[in-house]
Amino acid sequence: MLIPRDIAPALVVETLSGTPYDLSLERPARFSLVCFYRGLHCPVCSNYLRELDRLTPAFGERGVTTVAISSDTEERARQMSQKIGAVNLRIGYGLELPEARKWGLYISASRGESSIGIVEPPLFSEPGVFLLRPDQSIYYISVQSMPFVRPNFQEMVQALDFIISTDYPARGEYIGAV
């Protein structure tokens, strides 16, 4: 189980830009926002990533880098990038499912075609959003077992203003007896 303030698992994936995303080499001023998404087959993901792409400059103004990652192939990731009209958002692909599990992501089995007529991969990870400090310690975790009801990126931008101005600490770190 991942705990806020612990160091995040290693994360290296290929990106559509041709430069691998390696969390250990990421140097944000304040945070790295890592958004794991289900894949091309998910209509909720396309809307979600479109919003993250739109808000990536606002995150950048607050010292936050962004990346969206799935276990899709390069071809499917490229199709997703085109579908959402990605301009600002790095798109990573090829996340190995054992690595997804290290991040606490849920894994689902294919149910054939999705509601938009795209075949789901045999296995894929469900969504998760993480904010990580420059030292790769975990600040914020949100992991879903379903494609619905995800963290709102506009609210996260607003929350960052408060987090930054008050130096608000990561919460949920207590693991002692209760």
Give a structural overview:
This protein has 178 residues and is of the alpha+beta class. It has one domain (12-166): Glutaredoxin (3-Layer(aba) Sandwich), CATH 3.40.30. It is built from four helices and nine strands. The chain has helices at 43-61, 74-84, 97-102, 153-166; strands spanning 12-15, 21-22, 31-36, 64-69, 90-93, 107-109, 123-125, 128-132, 138-143. A seven-stranded mixed β-sheet has the order 2-1-5-4-3-8-9, with helices on one face. A two-stranded antiparallel ribbon has the order 6-7. A hairpin with a 5-residue loop joins strand 1 (12-15) and strand 2. It is globular. The model has no long low-confidence stretch (mean pLDDT 97).
Structure characteristics:
178 residues, alpha+beta, Glutaredoxin, seven-stranded mixed sheet, two-stranded antiparallel ribbon, 9 strands, 28% helix, 22% strand
- Contiguous runs where pLDDT drops below 50 for at least 5 residues: none
**Spatial order of strands in the largest sheet:** 2-1-5-4-3-8-9
Known CATH architecture: 3-Layer(aba) Sandwich
CATH topology: Glutaredoxin
SSE order, as H and E? EEEHEHEHEEEEH
Number of helices: 4
